Amino acid sequence: MAHHRVQQWATFARQWWVYDATWQCPFRSAPAIIKHLQGKHKPIYHPTNDCGDHVVVINSKHIAMEGDLWRTFKYSHHTGGKDSEDPDLETFSENVPDEILKNLSGQIQQVMTVPKGIHEYTEEEKAEFPALFDWPQDHIMMRSGPSKPKQ
Amino acid sequence: MSHHIIPSGFVRTVLQNGVGRHICQLQRLTLKFCKSTVGSKGMRDFIENNLLDFTRKNPGVVVYLQPRRHRTARLVAEYLNGDVHQQYVNNFSEEEIHEWVKLLRSQSGQKAVRLRKYWHTDNPSIQGIWTPMTNRDTELNIKAFPDKSLSAKLLEESTASEKLLQKAAELRSKASQSEN
Amino acid sequence: MAQSGYRILSCFYKTNSRLLNSGFTDHVFVTQVRGRKRWHRSLYKAFYWRRIEQGPEPERPRSAWINWNYDAEIFALGQRLKEDFTETTLKRALTHSSYIQKEKVLRKDLEMGDEVHLEDNCELVKKGEEFTNDYVKAYLRHSFPALPEEGICSISEYLQSDEMLAEIGRNIGIKDLILCAEFPPSTATLSQSLKAMIGGLVQDQGSHTAEHFVQDFIITMMVGKDVMEMWEIVNPMGVLQSVIQKQQHGDIESRLLYETGANTVLATYMVGVYSDKKLLGKGYGETLSIAEEMAARDALRKFFGITLNQEPLPFNEDGHRLEIDHRKINASIKDYLTPSQLQ
C-alpha cells in the first residue's frame, strides 16, 4: 500500500527548475520554459494530467531585447471586453528568496549563447590573443570601459 | 456524454482461470421449448441432432430440458460466477441455436461491457516506473543551483573565436618545435 | 394489447339493439383506440412501489427450482474440474455435519427412525487442511528460497484464509451442492467443503493429483499480489542492518539522491541505501524518513527475492515438473536479528 503511494508521489513529483535569463531573448526563451511548465519534457505527459513543473526565471532585468522594446513592448490580447489595457513587459530586480533557492532541483539550458564581454577576458588572455598587427606606440585607444563620473 | 451511461470495464477472469487449468465457466444450460409450436422447431431439431454431441464434449455442463406448452423457445445459461443469461431463440434455425449454444459455452459469466483496454497486467513495469530520477545524471547531485556550466547553451560546433585560438596554439607549438 | 385497442363491438349490440333490429348491422365497424387508459399509469406505478416496499425476494437455494438433478450436478462438478472424483467421496466431502443433525431431528419429528445414511466431511476436512498447508508452504519455500519463514507463513495464511477458500469454492460451483443446515452456506462451511474436496482427492487419487489441484486453484490466487503487502516488516532499517552484518558487508549509509521542492508541501525526496559504496536500494517519499524507510524496504525486497518485477510463479507444465523438497524450511528472520533487536 505504502509502495503505491510513494511511487505515485515520485512519478508525479513537481520539480523546480531555474532559468538564467541573462542575455536571453524572452520570446525565444519562452518555448523552452513553456515545455517545462506544461510537463512535455516528461514521458507521463497528458493534457489532462497536472504534470507541469515550476520554473524560476532569474536575472530577468538583464534580458536581451531589440532597441526600445524592453520599455515599449505591450502584451496585446483581444478578450472582447471594453477598455482592457495591454500590460507592459515587467522585469524583476529583487534577489531570489532563499526558500525558493532551496527548492531548486534542475537548470534549463539557455537558448542563446552569451557573448563574452571584453571585461570578462583577463589581461593574460588579452595579451595572448592572436593579433595580425600591434598598435604603434603613440596610438590612443578608444575608451573601452564605462565613462568615469564627471567631477 | 454516454461514457458513464453505457457500462464499461476492464478485462477480467474469474479466479485466475487459465493460469492454472482452464475450467468451462458454463455451469448449467436449460433448454425451454414447446413440443408442438413452429417457433420451437429449431430447438427441437437441435435437441434431436446436436444436443448429445454437445453433452459428450462438455461433461462439466449440466443440461436440463423443460418442455412447456405454448411457450417460446429459450436457452437459460447459468455461470459459475452466479450470473444467469437468457437467450430467446424462438423462430431460430437449428444452426443458429447451435451457434448460440457454442457462444454460451465459451463465455464467462461476466456482463458484456465495452472494454477500455484489451489487456491486463499486474506487473506493468519490469525496469521500474519512470520517476524524475530515472536517467538523471548523478553529477547533478553535487551541483548547487543556479549553476553556470549547466546553464550555458551547448553548441555542436566550436565558435569562430575558439577555432582561432586553437589555430594560434597549433602555430605557436609548430613554431616552438621548429626553433628546437 | 389487441383487446384494449379496440372498442368491443358487443357493447354496441347490447345497447343499440334497436339499430340491429332495424337493419343497420350490415356494416360492422370497429374503432381502434391507441394508447393506454388514463388509470393505467397510476395503477401500475402503485404496483411497482408496493412491490419495492415488500423488499427483494428471499434468496432460495438452487435446488428449490424444478430443473435440479443432484447426481448430475455432482458428476458435472468433477468433470468441470477435470478430476476423477468418486461419487461417494465427492458427496461426502460436500456434506456438512450440521445437515446430518438437521436430518436426524427431522426424521425424529416425522417418526421415521434415527438412522441417516450420510457421512459428514470432518475427516476429509482435516486431511485436506493438513495436505494443503504442507503443500502450499513447500511450494512457496521452493519458489521464494531467500524469503524468511515468517514471510512464507504470512503468504500461506493469506492463501488458506477462510475468505479466500470460500471465494474459490463459490466460483468453482460448490455453493449450490453443499448440504448444510444454514442457507446460504457460510464462509467457514464453504472453505471446509473445499478442504474436504482436497482431502477426498488425496484419498482417491493420491497426493500428486491433489498437488496439481492445490496449485491450480489456491496458489494461482498469488498471481499479481505483492508479498510485502501480506507480510509486515517492522523496522526495515534494523532488519537490513542485520542482513548486511550477517553477510559481512560494511555498515549501511543512506545518501540523498534527489530532492525537489524542499520548502513546499509537495516536497519529494529520493534516498539511496549504500553498503561498501554499493547501492542496495532506493526509495522515494514525501519526507526524508519515509524515503529512507522505503529505500530499506527496496533493499530487503532484493535480498529476499520478492521484487515487483521478478519471474512469475511456475504453473501448468512448469509447475508439474517441480521437484519440491518437503523437508526444507527457510531461515527465520530471527536468525538475522541481534539479541537487542529480538526484544
From TrEMBL, chain A:
Gene Ontology terms: biological process: negative regulation of translation; translation
Which UniProt key words apply to this protein? Ribonucleoprotein, Ribosomal protein
Which Pfam families has this protein been placed in?
Answer: Ribosomal_L13 (PF00572)
Q: Which SUPFAM superfamilies match?
A: Ribosomal protein L13
Instruction: List the GO cellular component terms.
Output: mitochondrial large ribosomal subunit
Q: Which CDD domains match?
A: Ribosomal_L13
Signal sequence span per UniProt? none
UniProt record similarity statement: Belongs to the universal ribosomal protein uL13 family.
Q: What is this protein called?
A: 39S ribosomal protein L13, mitochondrial
Automatic annotation (TrEMBL), chain B:
Broad class of the protein's primary localization: mitochondrion
Kindly list the places in or outside the cell where this protein is found, as annotated in its UniProt entry.
Mitochondrion
Report one GO cellular component: mitochondrial large ribosomal subunit
Which PANTHER family does UniProt cross-reference here? 39S RIBOSOMAL PROTEIN L43, LARGE RIBOSOMAL SUBUNIT PROTEIN ML43
Q: Which family does the record assign?
A: Belongs to the mitochondrion-specific ribosomal protein mL43 family.
Please state what the protein is called.
Large ribosomal subunit protein mL43
Give a GO biological-process term: mitochondrial translation
The alphabetical list of record keywords is:
Mitochondrion, Ribonucleoprotein, Ribosomal protein
Q: Which InterPro entries match?
A: Ribosomal_mL43 (IPR039927), Ribosomal_mL43/mS25/NADH_DH (IPR007741), Thioredoxin-like_sf (IPR036249)
Any Pfam family hit = L51_S25_CI-B8
Enumerate the spans annotated as Ribosomal protein/NADH dehydrogenase domain. 35-108
Mention one GO molecular function.
Answer: structural constituent of ribosome
Automatic annotation (TrEMBL), chain C:
Which Gene Ontology cellular-component terms appear in the entry? microprocessor complex; mitochondrial large ribosomal subunit
Q: Which Pfam families match?
A: DSRM_MRPL44, RM44_endonuclase
Specify the signal sequence span: none
Query: Which keywords does this chain's UniProt record carry?
Result: Mitochondrion, Ribonucleoprotein, Ribosomal protein, RNA-binding, Transit peptide
Q: Which Gene3D superfamilies match?
A: 3.30.160.20, Ribonuclease III domain
Q: Which GO terms describe its biological process?
A: mitochondrial translational elongation; RNA processing
Q: Which residues form the DRBM domain?
A: 235-305
> InterPro entries recorded for this chain?
dsRBD_dom (IPR014720), Ribosomal_mL44_DSRM_metazoa (IPR044444), RM44_endonuclase (IPR055189), RNase_III_dom (IPR000999), RNase_III_sf (IPR036389)
Keyword Chloroplast listed? The answer is: no
The RNase III domain extends over 77-206
Transmembrane ranges?
Answer: none
Xref: CDD domains: DSRM_MRPL44, RIBOc
Q: Which GO terms describe its molecular function?
A: double-stranded RNA binding; ribonuclease III activity
The organism's superkingdom is given as Eukaryota
PROSITE patterns (alphabetical): DS_RBD, RNASE_3_2
| Locations listed in the record | Mitochondrion
Question: What family is reported?
Answer: Belongs to the ribonuclease III family. Mitochondrion-specific ribosomal protein mL44 subfamily.
Name it.
Large ribosomal subunit protein mL44
